[in-house]
Amino acid sequence: PQGSEEAKAFVNAFLKRSMPKRKDEAIQDILTRKAVVLEHYSKKKTKPKKKKTKGFTAKQRREMRLFEIEPEQQRYAIFLPLHELWKQYIRDLCHGLKPDVQPHVIQGKLLKADLHGAIVTVTKSKCPSYVGITGIILQEFKHVFKIITKEDKLKVVPKLNNVFSLETDGFISYIYGSKFQLRASERSAKKFKLKGTIDL
């Protein structure tokens, strides 16, 4: 059997180990009470950091030529079915493009729509050589459209300082490229504000 001093030393040591955040004076104060409530400190669990999947850099994409269209694929006829799919997509998006639909409603939807497959025409430009270019949009980037013309020529047309017209089932809409310098994915989430006068 333990003596009273040994028992006291054991209890003191046990309480210090059980309540590491308490000072000796506080522990002695607790011992004078009839009941001792031991404290429990749970260890904080560190959450494992999620590793983000890294995509290709712009340089790697250029080296791999991910966005380049092969010369043998640069034919207008190949992309006509894409245009037909785009027209059906716009009809579904605008609920049939009925004559009684308000023009600003359709324009609001077209601002956020995917334009890959649309036939566009450059109607105004600060560079006269771009005016009149008509074709199917194959690729849309932040600053340029890649358009395939009926002559099977791939044209890279900048958005800046150009106005494009877009015709769908008799409804003609105009795209002011200078106000349209966004990626397709960014446009779908952007809130466009109505503006009064728009210039090139």
From TrEMBL:
<protein>
    <recommendedName>
        <fullName>Ribonuclease P protein subunit p29</fullName>
    </recommendedName>
</protein>
<dbReference type="InterPro" id="IPR036980">
    <property type="entry name" value="RNase_P/MRP_Rpp29_sf"/>
</dbReference>
<dbReference type="GO" id="GO:0005730">
    <property type="term" value="C:nucleolus"/>
</dbReference>
<dbReference type="InterPro" id="IPR016848">
    <property type="entry name" value="RNase_P/MRP_Rpp29-subunit"/>
</dbReference>
<dbReference type="InterPro" id="IPR002730">
    <property type="entry name" value="Rpp29/RNP1"/>
</dbReference>
<comment type="function">
    <text>Component of ribonuclease P, a ribonucleoprotein complex that generates mature tRNA molecules by cleaving their 5'-ends.</text>
</comment>
<dbReference type="GO" id="GO:0000172">
    <property type="term" value="C:ribonuclease MRP complex"/>
</dbReference>
<keyword id="KW-0539">Nucleus</keyword>
<comment type="subunit">
    <text>Component of nuclear RNase P and RNase MRP ribonucleoproteins. RNase P consists of a catalytic RNA moiety and 10 different protein chains; POP1, POP4, POP5, POP7, RPP14, RPP21, RPP25, RPP30, RPP38 and RPP40. Within the RNase P complex, POP1, POP7 and RPP25 form the 'finger' subcomplex, POP5, RPP14, RPP40 and homodimeric RPP30 form the 'palm' subcomplex, and RPP21, POP4 and RPP38 form the 'wrist' subcomplex. All subunits of the RNase P complex interact with the catalytic RNA. Several subunits of RNase P are also part of the RNase MRP complex.</text>
</comment>
<dbReference type="GO" id="GO:0030677">
    <property type="term" value="C:ribonuclease P complex"/>
</dbReference>
<keyword id="KW-0597">Phosphoprotein</keyword>
<dbReference type="GO" id="GO:0033204">
    <property type="term" value="F:ribonuclease P RNA binding"/>
</dbReference>
<dbReference type="InterPro" id="IPR023534">
    <property type="entry name" value="Rof/RNase_P-like"/>
</dbReference>
<dbReference type="Pfam" id="PF01868">
    <property type="entry name" value="RNase_P-MRP_p29"/>
</dbReference>
<dbReference type="GO" id="GO:0006364">
    <property type="term" value="P:rRNA processing"/>
</dbReference>
<keyword id="KW-0819">tRNA processing</keyword>
<dbReference type="GO" id="GO:0001682">
    <property type="term" value="P:tRNA 5'-leader removal"/>
</dbReference>
<comment type="similarity">
    <text>Belongs to the eukaryotic/archaeal RNase P protein component 1 family.</text>
</comment>
